[in-house]
Amino acid sequence: MSKSLPYSVKDVNYDNAKFRHRSPLKVLSQSMLTLSTKRNYASCSTGKFLMLILIFGIGCLLLISKGPNDSAPNEKGKVTFVGGLRLGKLLRKPPRLPPRLSPDEGQLRANGSNSDPKWAARQQSVKDAFDYAWSGYRKYAMGYDELMPISQRGVDGLGGLGATVVDALDTAMIMGHDHIVSEAGAWVEAHLLERISQKDQVNLFETTIRVLGGLLSAYHLSGGDNSTMNMTHNGPKPAVYLNVAKDLADRLLSAFSSSPTPVPYSDVILRDSTAHPAPGGMSSTAEVASVQLEFNYLSAVSGDPKYSTEAMKVLAHIKTLPKTEGLVPIYISPQSGEFVGENIRLGSRGDSYYEYLIKVWLQQGGKLNSNFTYLHDMYTVAMKGVRHLLVRKSIPKGLVFVGELPYGSKGEFSPKMDHLVCFLPGTLALGATKGLTKEKALAENLLSFEDLENLKLAEELAKACFEMYEVTATGLAPEIAYFHTEEYSEDGLEGGNKSSMYAKDIIIHQADRHNLLRPETVESLFVLYRLTKDTKYRDQGWQIFEAFEKYTKVKTGGYTSLDDVTEVPPLRRDKMETFFLGETLKYLYLLFGDDSVIPLDKFVFNTEAHPLPIKHT
User: What is the DSSP letter of 335?
Assistant: First the structure.
């Protein structure tokens, strides 16, 4: 894949041999050989005289270059004098370019590189935090889904497939944590297939995005899929990750085959490859519509279309269902194939439906005249619906936010915004520029008026998301916030940071004050920084990271979720979610790093931050 070379474009056509350092002896001897091809100077007296001068010069230079102090470098700026002659300029080395790298070698060498010392140091801090989080997990919970860092034990809340191991694996690869790649990869190779064959109920969506997505990303980043961007030489061979992924996906397919409609059941019994609906019979719209990136890529690398065929039937079916300006209810029935209820929101149970519309289209090449164009069309209509029906401004300071319609478009508007909604700024920006920088997209006239509107909204929403952190006493966001509007206000529910200019705009209910180490805001900061190059997004990301370090780090190892972000010191919960290693720290690391590592025009991230390659034709 094409990557920028580590030196100026104007140097591309230079022969690097011209810039290699040559000794004085080689310079003069080469000159003599060249001259001899023009004229045999040794055959005349003048030639003999010149030859003596050359031999004398060579002798002097050999004495200089082989002197007793040659191994000790001169002080900076010091000039050497020999026999009264100033030789500084004469002996100055020619300029030397870095070695020319192939595009893929450049990608690998850039892994973690950063030309700015400040951001290189901050990126290293994130890398150290990941190591600290993993160390706590490995010490107290290895093989369990999640770490309870205060209790110093593990817990299985996601089906018992070692979710933290697989979720963290590609983050370790990207960061260059080879010892963690070795530990995690060895665990996958030794234990995961057996776990899959023995476990009972798992959730289709959670298992797909965390475990299947993590395995497929690890497969690609470790050199699978004929990829030359091998980010690690540690751990098992790529085929190990792929074989486990296929075994898992084969069992997950029962969620599709067991349903009477294209809408899959939500729960799968892995050991006998059966499936059933969730209690109440409904599936979440986001869940059934957010497995396509993973199943599409598995079909591409396995050569078996069955995975993609089943998953894409869901989106093709949803295309036919009635919507409200492109917006959909958060529940759908596998029995009838129809939406259930009228609750419309971009938070829980609704969020990644909209994310995958644009990302699946991008994954399949992002062409407007392809079989996947309907996904781009659905996304475009939905974002118009968001702007028309869900976007409001708070008072008194005018933060732009996205609310909810609990009773549909004809019901009352709710100024409630989950932290989960903070995925939207990044998705809007990605959908606008298709992974190119804003500057490049503008220069190539690739941005429509609609794209510019979405990009503007992305930046406005990112500000609201960051202010959800800024208004609290800890500097960490609550799980849910409400916004003060003309129609809605409550007193005494501020975030605790009275110096914030938006203290009166954001309302935080007692039940919503917890923080689960979520990634959505830093995800959007990462995408917006990559696409706009505005350094405020880096600064904001660093501020959030410092708050995580200050209030969520556990002395015995790992990080913990918090019970109340509006008080200092905050009450602590006892859970390190898998997505803290799989998403939050990964996005922060990439935010502070080099743009060539996982470039946004070459990869799409699934909703658990596992990067999968874009199909290029």
Answer: T
